[in-house]
């Protein structure tokens, strides 16, 4: 948030929570750890590739774009040798797509606002430089500074934690250890909690959540790989490091790293990893937003690479049906549309709105997890432009 402002929260507030962040991909090559990183100089090992199309360079993906519904696509790879960082290329090309959360309805005001979340998707293509890549780990590294509006000791009074249910690594402001005042939240100026959560990977799980302060920044691929796999001596035997406070450490300038894997990327094959970027005004709001984003965030379920859009509007029957915990709702848009998906009970009363946002053409799915709803018959309604359709579903608890 100092020098490279991004991860602005709330939107248009000019209050930024992220100093830097980026993708790490690691595996073993010739019996030695090899990790391609976006880290501090000189370890910025991804190179922009405008010949692939998209943006000519990796952008700071954590910002509010001019069009809150438009995805941003960047292309880069690790094929260049970098003697200054002793980089060993893995032979990975990356297509990164940053998708803002669009607009949602604020439940407190019923006004349309920018969603405090976004999705970043990495498609990792193995060029075959090193043949099949086995036991690959993928991490998202973030150096949050909470927050740029802090008029005193920015970044040195933060804490970090992890929510295993949401696969969420997050950071927040705490009391400045050198101040005599209690300045948690910077007297109301920096009450935001910010974090990242895994949405999709071949293993569908986080295998390590790490944090460290600037004094323990990894200096080489072996140390980085240890953090990725949860085997760093600084992690004290934990795969998921607890809050620094719980381990006897003070609030300080921390970094977070959450890792998914291991999985193989065969020669000339592509795998997809997705992360959620999310913010909230305090702990409860962050958890609520992270859960809401998981429930509402669309997932494009069209076949990868077919380049086709649906020819008609559709709302499929939810599955499973009947259901007793959660059910998946799929629908198709042949053109960009304003989409509203609502749930009604048998009396015709609206129970909840699962989605209210502009979306491009595509095939989508979301999950309804009605924790507070009673057993009974419900109706799922899709409104998209002039298209309207309702299907019945049965909740059995």
Explain what the structure shows.
This protein is 6% helix and 44% strand. By secondary structure, it is mainly beta. The chain folds into two domains: 6-296, Beta-galactosidase, Chain A, domain 5, CATH 2.70.98; 314-395, Immunoglobulin-like (Sandwich), CATH 2.60.40. The chain has an eight-stranded antiparallel beta sheet. Strands 1, 2, 3, 10, 14 and 15 form a six-stranded antiparallel beta sheet that branches. Strands 20-19-22-23 form a four-stranded antiparallel beta sheet, with no helix packed on it. The model is unreliable at 56-64 and 298-308 (pLDDT under 50).
Portion of residues in beta strands equals 35-45%
Major beta-sheet overview? 8 strands, antiparallel
Determine the mean pLDDT: 83
The structural domain count equals 2
Brief characterization of the structure:
The chain has 2 helices and 23 strands. It has helices at about 220-230, 285-295; strands at about 5-10, 15-30, 30-35, 45-50, 70-75, 90-100, 105, 110-115, 115-125, 135-145, 160-165, 170-175, 190-200, 205-215, 255-265, 270-280, 315, 325-335, 335-345, 350-360, 360-370, 375-385, 385-395.
Question: Strands, helices and their partners?
Answer:
Elements: E1 6-8, E2 16-29, E3 32-37, E4 47-48, E5 72-77, E6 92-100, E7 103-105, E8 112-114, E9 117-126, E10 133-144, E11 158-163, E12 168-173, E13 192-200, E14 206-213, H1 221-229, E15 254-265, E16 270-281, H2 283-296, E17 314-315, E18 327-333, E19 337-345, E20 350-359, E21 362-368, E22 376-384, E23 387-395
Antiparallel strand pairs: 1-2, 2-3, 2-10, 4-5, 5-6, 6-9, 7-8, 9-16, 10-15, 11-12, 12-13, 13-16, 14-15, 17-18, 18-21, 19-20, 19-22, 22-23
């Amino acid at each position: 948030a100092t020098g490279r402002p991004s991860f602005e929260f709330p939107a248009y507030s000019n209050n930024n929570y992220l100093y830097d962040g980026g993708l790490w991909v690691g595996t073993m090559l010739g019996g030695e750890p090899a990790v391609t990183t976006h880290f501090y100089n000189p370890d910025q090992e991804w190179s922009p590739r405008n010949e692939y199309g998209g943006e000519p360079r990796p952008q700071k993906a954590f910002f509010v774009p001019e069009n809150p519904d438009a995805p941003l696509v960047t292309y880069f790879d690790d094929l260049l040798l970098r003697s200054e960082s002793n980089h060993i290329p893995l032979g990975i090309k990356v297509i990164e797509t940053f998708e803002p959360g669009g607009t949602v309805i604020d439940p407190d005001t019923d006004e349309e606002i920018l969603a405090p979340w976004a999705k970043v998707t990495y498609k990792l293509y193995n060029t075959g430089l090193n043949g099949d890549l086995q036991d690959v780990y993928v991490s998202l590294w973030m150096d949050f500074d909470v927050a740029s509006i802090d008029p005193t000791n920015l970044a040195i009074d933060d804490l970090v934690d992890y929510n295993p249910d949401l696969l969420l690594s997050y950071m927040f402001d705490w009391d400045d250890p050198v101040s005599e005042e209690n300045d948690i939240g910077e007297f109301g100026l920096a009450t935001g909690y910010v974090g990242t959560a895994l949405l999709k990977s071949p293993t569908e799980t986080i295998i390590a959540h790490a944090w460290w302060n600037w004094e323990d920044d990894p200096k080489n691929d072996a140390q980085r790989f240890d953090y990725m796999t949860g085997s760093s001596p600084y992690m004290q035997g934990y795969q998921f490091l607890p809050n620094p406070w719980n381990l006897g450490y003070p609030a300080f300038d921390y970094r977070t790293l959450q890792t998914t894997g291991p999985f193989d990327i065969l020669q000339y094959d592509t795998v997809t990893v997705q992360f959620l970027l999310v913010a909230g005004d305090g702990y409860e709001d962050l958890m609520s937003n992270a859960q809401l984003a998981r429930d509402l965030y669309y997932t494009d379920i069209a076949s990868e690479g077919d380049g086709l859009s649906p020819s008609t509007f559709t709302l499929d029957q939810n599955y499973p049906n009947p259901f007793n915990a959660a059910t998946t709702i799929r629908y198709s848009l042949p053109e960009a549309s304003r989409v509203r998906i609502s749930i009604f009970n048998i009396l015709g009363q609206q129970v909840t709105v699962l989605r209210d946002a502009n979306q491009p053409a595509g095939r989508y799915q979301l999950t309804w997890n009605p924790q507070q709803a009673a057993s009974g018959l419900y109706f799922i309604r899709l409104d998209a432009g002039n298209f309207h359709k309702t299907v019945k579903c049965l909740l059995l608890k």
